[in-house]
Specification:
Elements lengths: L1 H12 L5 H10 L1 H17 L3 H15 L2 E2 L4 E2 L4 E2 L6 E2 L4 E2 L4 E2 L4 E3 L9 E2 L4 E2 L4 E3 L3 E2 L4 E2 L4 E2 L7 E4 L4 E5 L16 H14 L24 H15 L16 H13 L1
Parallel strand pairs: 1-4, 2-5, 3-6, 4-7, 5-8, 7-10, 8-11, 9-12, 10-13, 12-14
Antiparallel strand pairs: 14-15
């Protein structure tokens, strides 16, 4: 238990630079409190103190808004940003270093007792639900308000109701991805124009070229914006893009995406 608690606290406070801010977050962050209440309830349950575990879970739900069953098995390094509406049902299995936000549910699909098994480094955005007897792989991200009811492999981004795979993230050591050669200026210009017309949820830079990043520290497209952009690309360039072709490497920059569009157009 203590190893898990240390990992939980360390992960939640890692971005704080001063001791005072770390201490303040420890005592006053409801997400961390929800995790620590769960750890205590789980410890009580495993030591045959079930009634006290139930009371601890109830106190946690009242104070933090999260309902996390002590009968759920959750790995170390759990991070919950906004615990209100977070539900993790009895029997659910969640791996190490996972991240939850507001309104997430990990539980049953049709009122039965079957619940998900989730791997390491899972991340669920606001409102995402993972339901039923399914398996979710490692390094999986689920976009806001999506509902996952089928199993997902490792290294994917899923979105929608029901959720489908939007991006397949490949390791750096993977073979070179098509679409990395220098794209034509015309293709880049048309893609930049599509970005300006279709991306609304995130700010678009006043100046963009082939080197402009699309993910992470670049424009920071989320899964919903990526889906809109893919649909716009298909319309603009007359293409049909298969889900298996949507890899994070192709969306790294404007240039890498334009290069992929050129290859699809030529094939």
């Amino acid at each position: 238990m203590l190893d898990s608690v240390r990992a939980d606290v360390r992960r939640m406070t890692a971005q704080e630079t001063s001791l005072a801010s770390k201490v303040g977050l420890f005592f006053f962050h409801p997400g961390l409190q929800a995790v620590l209440f769960y750890r205590l309830a789980r410890w009580l349950l495993l030591h045959h103190l079930g009634p006290l575990a139930v009371v601890t879970s109830y106190v946690s739900s009242v104070l933090t808004g999260a309902q996390i069953s002590p009968r759920a098995a959750i790995g170390k390094g759990l991070r919950i940003y906004h615990p209100h509406g977070v539900v993790i049902g009895a029997g659910a299995i969640v791996g190490d270093h996972c991240t939850l936000s507001h309104g997430n549910m990990i539980g049953t699909f049709a009122g039965d007792e079957e619940r998900p098994v989730i791997g390491y480094h899972f991340s669920a955005a606001t409102g995402a639900k993972i339901l039923g007897k399914i398996t979710v792989g490692d390094y999986v991200r689920v976009s806001p308000n999506s509902v996952v009811i089928t199993s997902l492999p490792d290294n994917v981004v899923a979105t929608g109701v029901p959720a489908r795979i939007l991006l397949r993230e490949q390791p750096e050591s993977a073979a070179a991805t098509p679409g990395t050669e220098k794209p034509a200026v015309d293709t880049v210009d048309r893609l930049v124009s599509l970005l300006r017309r279709n991306v609304e949820a995130v700010p678009v830079p006043a100046s963009m070229d082939a080197s402009t990043g699309l993910l992470g520290e670049g424009i920071g497209l989320d899964s919903v914006e990526i889906l809109k952009l893919v649909c716009a690309i298909e319309d603009e360039f007359g293409l049909t893009i298969d889900e298996s072709e949507l890899t994070a490497a192709r969306f790294k920059t404007v240039g890498s995406l334009a290069g992929f569009i050129q290859e699809k157009s030529a094939s």
